[in-house]
Amino acid sequence: MSSTKPVPAGFSPGRRHFLKHSAGLSFAFFLPGMAGCGQEPAPAPGPASNTVPTRDSYEINTYVSITSDGRITILCPAAEMGQGVLTALPLLLAEDMDAKWDDVVIQPSPSFGDAYGDPLFLNMIFTAASRAITHNYERLRIYGAQTRHVLLQNAAHQWQVDISELRTEPSVVIHDKTGRRLTYGEIAGFGEVPATLPEISFADLKSPAEFRLIGKDVARRDVAEKTNGSATYSIDARPPGLVFAAVVRAPIEGAQLATVDDSAAATMPGVIRILRHEQEVAVVAASYWQALQARNKLVVTWNPVGKVDSYHTAQALEEHLASVREPAQPGFPWDGAGDIEAGFAAAAEIVESEFQTDYGYHATVEPLNAVVWVKEDGQSAEAWVGTQAPPYTVDAIARTTGIERTAVTLHRSLLGGAFGRRSVFSMDFVTSAAWLSKELLRPVKVIWDRADDIRYGHFKPMTAQKLRAAIDNDGNIQAWHHRVACEDPLRRYEPLLYEGWGKIPLISMLGSEHEAPDHSPLPFAYNLPARLVEQIPVDAGIRIYAMRGVGAGPNKFAIESFIDEIAARLHLDPLAYRLQLLQQSPRAQQVLRKAAELARWDEPREGHALGIAYSHYADSLVVGIAEVSIDKARYEIKVHDFWLVADVGIIIQPTNVRAQLEGGVIYGLSNCLKEELTIKNGIAQQTNFHEYQLLRMREVPAVHVELIASMEHPTGAGEAGTIVAPCAVANAFASLTGKRLHQMPFLPPQIKKVLGA
Amino acid sequence: MTITLNVNGMQYEQDIPSDMPLLWVLRDVLNLTGTKFGCGIAQCGACTVHVDGQPVRSCAIPAGSLSGKKITTIEGIPDAGRHPVQLAWQELQVPQCGYCQSGQIMSAVALLESHPQPTDADIDQAMSGNLCRCGTYSKIRAAIHLAAGTADTAET
Fold it and tell me: Chain B residue with minimal CA distance to A548?
């Protein structure tokens, strides 16, 4: 795996990107195929210079090839999990290439290659953190411009004219002086790739006024197949000779098998083999259902693990809270400035509050699964996996089977939802299929049923939060102390990123800082000149990982609730108070004002109330407003309407950005209104969707999304809705009832208790 | 045992356990993978098919109970991918990850058969058994209205 100097944790966009000559760029050779089904290329040795292109496929750089009939294949580096990157990223390249969109065919990129990776994730392809557009925007547009320039060079050479006399229209080079035209397809018939690819800088790119594609909706390329049953996910892959397996794995991380009784399972119909490997037992059968029926007859016991064996949610919540309250409990300083002690000493008033958030389950509708096929000679393998992190997937298969990474061909399937779960380093949902296939030397599909998927979940971590603020008579926050007790997933579950990012609790603490990653001030963060934000580390032993919104979900719940509490203490309107705290950011104020206008903030509602929340996670400025009422018989919050206004910079595909924002809101509302995960003896108690309930059609509010027109560098929209939705609901609840919810999710028992019923 | 199933107008004779859910017969025996597995207990709707025109969760129906019945999957609804519901789904760009959408469409097609001009309450009733984790619910609703020609009268 390529390892470059790790980039400090941060999500700052706008880095200039220069492409040098082609040496070092892996020269891709690939076959067109169905969307979602790519072939891993064999990396070519040596520089891709002076190569005589075949007439069938003119490969200009690591992203683009053109056939002489004019078909333009553009690779998409990011994983398609419903967020629309499969369309939007190639579109960026097509824009500056001046490619006719209907000529473009899209394929997933190879799993490795600096050209495809994300510098933040150590140059690995890692689709997460709302980054796909923001970190690819310049790079792909530059590749597009580079491609166009190579086509122009070839036309200029062919016509023996100066390149400055040429221009393009979509997929055609034109020489106005003579009226001559060459389509990109025609150039592909004779074109050459220069030894030194042209150096393009951001300044060479089209100006937004010239955009043909960016900012104008195109039909997403994966939609049609998702309406007719032909879209294939890894769960659908069917290589010849496929067998199926259901597995038993450690219910608690680190558990070891004590006894396995497979006598009943072995006699079940369709069973081919029952195998044990390390701490797993697998039943292999001719169909998945038969594998599952037999697997359910296994009787397996486990040795005790340790402290985690008696881990219960209720007690864990108390322990998290105790540690965040204990002043002697040292914290990892996450964000700080000024002198908070002086601020507290001089305070006119001090406001304090505590909040708690519970574990959460990703709940992708496609349960975790993988297909791995170790070939007969044991020297190579193919795999079909829906993965956010292809390098992790390939390396996990290589590690498990002993096969060289370069001999593992990964078909990058569409993902039936991910939300963070399909990027875990261990690739726990892949390795079973790998060792089984190595044993059987035939393709094996391992599917986790829903109970497995919850049991083996890596949950959003539990947190306890303590906030303390010193305010002066004008409402300025003179000191801000925020302690977050949480376990961060990096330490135990992300060895590469933990090291690469300098061993910081990034995932859990994101959203609690008020400055840029390089410590420069952020105009659109709340004005908190003296502050200390600390992580109080917890080591619980429950499997955790990043979930949509990451730490910003829990942390903003605490922060946005607390801001409302301060506003109330000051007798200030929550909107007015946020405008005051963000007065150094006209951009942020614009988003607040627009949301307030759409929601008719000042209009009183009978039996309903509004709540507001603001987030600048991933540099996207987002405001959510919820209108709620309370069903006092059922102690349930009803959300009637939700307004979301976002400034996400330049918008690549407006309809898709709206869909992501709305989808994020629904995910966040589901998190806080419906989802209950109870851990007992270290194991999640919920077993399926009748117990772990998700928001349904009849429960969703009308969601109104407005996008601010902006020329800023594009920033991500995938998580923003999830972050602000629960905060806005909690603030609306408080506005309606005068009582505050200090714990997420907002389930009936808490509501009943808080209302004093 | 040998079971005969009529799926999308074709007769299949298969030697399968009579208690194997229809879902797994479709996916693993007949290679029709458009119908999806999500929960196995009829809580998510991803496995929705039609049996004699009625929407049914195929994960909860044993294959042995279906002799003589007409089964339709996402692959078999009329107009080969150009059913008005599918066209509405495409026009409004409904799917995100797409995994739940076969089931959503099957439920929607069945709804429109019985309620050609559905109200929002009808839609709530018919569609709330289909989970969408990506949160495309409002577009599903709008697409149903579009396919029904009731878009102008929709509340949303």
Answer: B134
Q: For chain A, what percent of residues have pLDDT higher than 90?
A: 90
Cα–Cα distances (Å) from A146 to A110, A153, A468, in that order, read 20, 10, 53
Q: CA A388 to CA A592: how far, in whole Å?
A: 33
Given an 8 Å threshold on Cβ–Cβ distance, is B94 in contact with A227? Answer: yes
CA A727 to chain CA mean position, Å: 20
Per-position DSSP letters for A420-443, written without gaps between them: TGGG-TT-HHHHHHHHHHHHHSS-
One-letter amino acid of A748: P
Token digits of residue A35? 């969307």
Q: Which of B33, B39, B127 sits opposite A236 (nearest CB)?
A: B33
- SS3 category, A368: coil
3-state secondary structure of A614: strand
Return residues 359-398 of A near B (CB < 8 Å): 363-367
Question: How many whole angstroms separate alpha carbon B131 and alpha carbon B139?
Answer: 13
- A447 and chain B: CB distance < 8 Å anywhere? yes
What's the per-residue H, E or C state across chain B?
A: CEEEEEECCEEEEEECCCCCEHHHHHHHHCCCCCCCCCCCCCCCCCCEEEECCEEEEHHHCEHHHCCCCEEECHHHCCCCCCCHHHHHHHHCCCCCCCCCHHHHHHHHHHHHHHCCCCCHHHHHHHHCCCCCCCCCHHHHHHHHHHHHCCHHHCCC
The whole-angstrom separation of Cα A358 and Cα A321 is: 12
Residue in the block written with tokens 């008020």:
A514
Closest to A336 measured CA to CA, from A126, A186, A482, A139: A482
Q: Tell me the per-residue pLDDT of A182-198, one tens digit each, with 9 for 90 and over.
A: 999 999 999 999 999 99
Q: What is the pTM of this model?
A: 0.94
Token digits of residue A343: 């601020």
Q: At what angle do helices B137-148 and B84-91 cross, to 10 degrees?
A: 130
Give the percent of chain B with pLDDT over 70.
97
The C-alpha of B68 sits at a distance from chain A's nearest C-alpha, in angstroms, of 23
The answer to whether B105 and B139 are in contact (CB under 8 A) is: no
ipTM of the prediction = 0.97
A231 touches chain B (CB under 8 A): yes
Q: What residue of A is the nearest CA neighbor of B143?
A: A227
